[in-house]
């Protein structure tokens, strides 16, 4: 089978994109095929794969799969990249509403290569000794560290992800360094089972956990975030009980396109 594909990246978080509006190349159960397509040695190589499909009442549907081939929960940078892909396909113009694993999402494309994705409200944050857990479309563990440059993200991330309380369903693990002008964030992602250059739902969780620690957290926030793959921004309003009007903003770039043959 011959599959046309496109490769996108958002702050170094990279995805294989396949247009399934008129032809179905892959199914939800094609785990081995999807994992092979995401393999960086034998396939195209990516942190995940996204199928863009028709959806009644929406501009399109986003089906997201982790690099291990399993269907994933919301991917924030993937959501921004699929909106850019839909714009490239002339499916949408400067804004859209699409269906993802956690429900509808709005996206805006205010300028070329920049996409803003509206996330769902977050009301529940669990805090423990030195960490916070919250769900921003995907479950995240957030820990603040003094220096990311000397921190072993993979080893410590794997230790948390496979801890008894998280091992069954898995959790994404974020380490955060506070800077004067924003945050540095590094993420170990379940499904990829490694550090990624950026994680959209992860930086969103990190920004929320950071604001809750501040002496005057209530208000509107626009937080610059630096990842190893580039700059992102997270905007939201916090009323002391819930985070609302949450927007994940950053680059979404088409890298290349091609055709791959698969049995």
Q: What does this molecule look like?
A:
- 16% of the residues lie in helices and 46% in strands.
- It has 263 residues and is of the alpha+beta class.
- The chain has 2 domains: 2-119 and 252-261, Roll (Diaminopimelate Epimerase, Chain A, domain 1); 125-245, Diaminopimelate Epimerase, Chain A, domain 1 (Roll), CATH 3.10.310.
- The longest helix has 13 residues, at 76-88.
- The protein starts with a strand and ends with a strand.
- The mean pLDDT is 97.
**SS-based class:** alpha+beta
Q: How large is the count of helical segments?
A: 4
Low-confidence stretches: none
Instruction: Write down the CATH class of the largest domain.
Output: Alpha Beta
The SSE string, one letter per element, is EEHEEHEEEEEEHEEEHEEEE
Instruction: Estimate the helix proportion, in percent.
Output: 10-25%
Radius of gyration over C-alpha positions, nearest whole angstrom: 18 Å
The end-to-end span amounts to 6 Å
Relative strand content? over 45%
For this structure, the CATH topology of the largest domain is Diaminopimelate Epimerase, Chain A, domain 1
The figure for the number of domains is: 2
Oligomeric grouping of the chains: single chain
Biggest beta sheet attributes: 17 strands, mixed
* Known CATH architecture of the largest domain: Roll
In short:
With 263 residues, the chain is α+β, with helices and mostly antiparallel strands. The protein is built from four helices and 17 strands.
Lay out the secondary structure:
Layout: E1 2-10, E2 13-19, H1 31-38, E3 48-53, E4 60-66, H2 76-88, E5 95-100, E6 103-111, E7 114-119, E8 125-128, E9 131-135, E10 139-144, H3 153-161, E11 172-179, E12 182-189, E13 194-196, H4 200-212, E14 219-227, E15 230-238, E16 243-251, E17 253-261
Parallel strand pairs: 2-3, 4-5, 10-11, 12-14
Antiparallel strand pairs: 1-2, 1-17, 3-4, 5-6, 6-7, 7-16, 8-9, 9-10, 11-12, 12-13, 14-15, 15-16
């Amino acid at each position: 089978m011959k599959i046309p594909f496109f490769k996108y990246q958002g702050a170094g978080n990279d995805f294989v994109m396949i247009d399934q509006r008129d032809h179905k190349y892959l199914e939800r159960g094609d785990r081995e095929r999807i994992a092979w397509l995401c393999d960086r040695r034998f396939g195209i190589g990516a942190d995940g794969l996204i199928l863009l499909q028709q959806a009644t009442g929406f501009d399109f549907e986003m089906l997201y799969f982790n690099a291990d081939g399993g269907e994933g929960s919301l991917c924030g940078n993937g959501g921004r990249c699929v909106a850019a892909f839909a714009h490239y396909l002339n499916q949408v113009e400067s804004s859209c509403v699409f269906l993802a694993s956690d429900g509808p999402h709005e996206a805006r494309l205010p300028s070329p290569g920049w996409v803003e994705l509206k996330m769902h409200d977050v009301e529940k944050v669990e805090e423990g000794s030195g960490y916070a857990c919250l769900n921003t479309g995907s479950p995240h563990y957030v820990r603040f560290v003094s220096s990311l440059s000397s921190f072993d993200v993979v080893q410590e991330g794997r230790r948390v992800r496979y801890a008894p309380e998280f091992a069954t369903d898995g959790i994404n693990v974020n380490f955060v360094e506070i800077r004067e002008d924003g945050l540095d964030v590094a993420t170990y992602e379940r499904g990829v089972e490694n550090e990624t250059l950026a994680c959209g739902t992860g930086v969103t969780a990190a920004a929320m956990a950071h604001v809750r620690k501040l002496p005057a957290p209530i208000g509107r926030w626009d937080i610059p975030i630096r990842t190893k793959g580039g700059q992102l921004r997270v905007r939201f309003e916090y009323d002391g009980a819930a985070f609302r009007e949450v927007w994940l903003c950053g680059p979404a770039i088409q890298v290349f396109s091609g055709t791959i043959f698969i049995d």
